UniProtKB/TrEMBL annotation:
Keyword set, alphabetical order: Signal
Keyword Signal recorded: yes
Signal peptide residues on this chain, from the entry's feature table: 1-18
Gene3D superfamilies: Dockerin domain
Name of the protein described by the UniProt record: EF-hand domain-containing protein
């Protein structure tokens, strides 16, 4: 089953961007931890916002009878077409670190840094130079038919839908 990144939209406003990330944290403790984690990655040029109307559920502890491996901080469970990200309350990481690990995995971040988030969520500017240009198109074309850099719509595939999004963002000089 293909995993959705949970990214609802990228809204570009001038040079600043905002990314709405969909995830359903269960309870105020997890909601605060997710909001704090997203604040760590947000910059004046890119604001990451939590949207709780969709995406996988994030729980503290197991929602099933399957016990956690004590060495595992986070696991993803798929059941009846729904995905749930479970955080081990007795795991090897504190809650803040476990949430960061879960979000890094969910949103396919190479590192937990504002720079990694900017590269991942800044839209069609694939090389992060502040412009959507032919260099970005070359990067997208190199990934066409695969996964990774160039996946502008967050479906974990680089395909015609991503080319369309790129075309909408590209401005002739």
């Amino acid at each position: 089953m293909r995993r959705s990144l949970g990214m609802a939209a990228l809204l570009l406003a001038g040079s600043a961007a905002a990314a709405d990330l969909t995830l359903r944290p269960q309870g105020p403790q997890l909601t605060r931890a997710v909001q704090q984690a997203l604040a760590e990655l947000s910059t004046p040029g890119l604001s990451l916002r939590l949207v709780t109307t969709g995406g996988p559920e994030l729980t503290l502890g197991s929602a099933s009878s399957v016990p956690f491996n004590p060495d595992v901080a986070v696991r993803t469970v798929a059941q009846a077409g729904e995905r749930r990200i479970e955080i081990n309350p007795q795991g090897p990481l504190a809650l803040d670190a476990a949430v960061r690990q879960a979000l890094a995995q969910e949103f396919d971040l190479d590192a937990w840094t504002p720079e990694a988030a900017r590269l991942r969520f800044s839209g069609a500017d694939l090389n992060g130079d502040g412009a959507v240009d032919l260099t970005d198109l070359a990067l997208l074309m190199n990934s066409l038919g695969g996964t990774g850099r160039g996946d502008l719509n967050g479906d974990r595939q680089v395909d015609d839908a991503d080319l369309k999004l790129f075309a909408e963002a590209y401005q002739l000089p």
